[in-house]
Specification:
The chain has helices spanning about 5-20, 25-30, 35-40, 45-65, 100-110, 115-130, 155-165, 235-245, 265-270, 290-295, 310-325; strands at about 70-75, 80-85, 170-175, 180-195, 195-205, 210-215, 220-225, 250-260, 275-280, 280-290, 305. It is α+β, with helices and mostly antiparallel strands. The strands form 3 sheets. A 5-stranded antiparallel beta sheet has the order 6-5-4-3-7. Strands 9-10-8-11 form a 4-stranded antiparallel beta sheet. A two-stranded antiparallel sheet has the order 1-2. The radius of gyration is 28 Å and the shape is elongated.
Length: about 325
């Protein structure tokens, strides 16, 4: 839903909830800023009246679909008015058991390193006031593992807001094989956390195709561009699959590597077979998909690619680029 439409629906809902008497279409049109700005140029012509009536009916239907109970009342002189009585739109008391409270507590802990932590904490306080049992501590540890989504990159917040507002951005990006960062013009779609790293999926305007960017490789400041998207945004599932594919999760074959004994535990967890070679080395067969070369480079001298030859060449090229600085 566009931000402008969401704001217009919110204002209409507040207006209908705040009135003690039914409001006519004319009164609503004159009271809500979005209606005033949209139909000001029409000057009350028949065309502008028809356009407003269509928009108002759509907005009213959208609010009803969202659950708002809107009453239609006819006055003594035959004029139709609308209102949303508070008693008809009041939520029932919120009751949470221990397991539900624990789940909310874990969700709040996940964002402790991001600015959303304050919002999550405030939400839990409101739930407490609304009926969360006093003997339940949503922040109490409910297991040996405590979830975290690390957010150390300065680019996270501006990109999150750009994804939400559908605003194109520009940033300098350093590829693993490049010595210097290059500017990228991107229409951001979604952020995904994978293997402890954050990735941005979006449409790269310069390359005319979808791309995925690792936030830790974004240098400098993320700048917004006051333009609109040029391509449709895919659904959430497609974006997540794209992130997984570009980050290397999708594998359609196998690779054979040598790994130093006692190193590379993430690689060992992915291995389909492990064989001891002696002299401090093991031989691993691991799934091979897009992005594996970039991942192997992170383990430096602890990894040697045996096959396939193309993967070995990609890793060598990346290591040479890093060595050149």
């Amino acid at each position: 839903m566009a931000i402008a439409k969401a704001e217009r629906l919110m204002n209409l809902a507040l207006c209908l909830l705040g009135t003690r008497r039914p409001l006519s279409k004319r009164e609503l049109r004159d009271s809500i800023e979005a209606y005033v700005e949209t139909f000001r140029a029409g000057g009350g012509t028949a065309a502008s009246d028809d356009s407003f009536n269509r928009m108002f009916e759509r907005d009213k239907d959208d609010l009803r679909e969202l659950g708002l109970v809107i009453e239609t009342v006819e006055s003594l002189d035959g004029e139709i008015g609308y209102l949303a009585r508070r008693d008809s739109n009041r939520l029932p008391p919120i009751t949470l058991d221990a397991e539900e409270a624990a789940a909310l507590g874990l969700a709040a802990k996940v964002w402790q390193q991001a600015r959303l932590a304050g919002a999550a904490s405030g939400a839990l306080q409101k739930l407490r006031a609304a009926g969360l049992p006093e003997d339940v501590d949503p922040y109490e540890a409910h297991g040996a593992l405590e979830p975290r989504i690390p957010v150390h990159e300065a680019a996270f917040e501006p990109l999150m807001l750009a994804c939400r507002d559908r605003r194109p951005v520009v940033f300098d990006y350093r590829k693993a094989t490049a010595a210097r960062p290059e500017p990228r013009h991107v229409e951001p779609w979604a952020l995904e956390c994978w293997r402890g790293h954050w990735y941005l999926a979006g449409f790269d305007r310069d390359r005319g195709a979808e791309r995925v960017f690792r936030l830790s490789r974004i240098t400098g400041r993320v700048r917004s561009r006051g333009t609109t998207f040029t391509v449709p945004v895919p659904d959430v599932v497609t974006v997540r699959e794209t992130v997984a594919s570009w980050a290397g999760e999708t594998a359609d074959r196998s690779a054979l590597i040598r790994l130093r004994t006692g190193a590379g535990y993430p690689l060992r967890a992915k291995a389909t077979s492990v064989r001891e070679l002696g002299d401090g080395w093991d031989e691993l067969e691991i799934p091979y998909g897009h992005g594996l070369d970039a991942w192997l480079v992170e383990f430096g001298p602890d990894v040697v690619v045996l096959e396939p030859a193309e993967l070995r060449a990609d890793v060598v090229d990346r290591l040479r680029a890093v060595a050149k600085g």
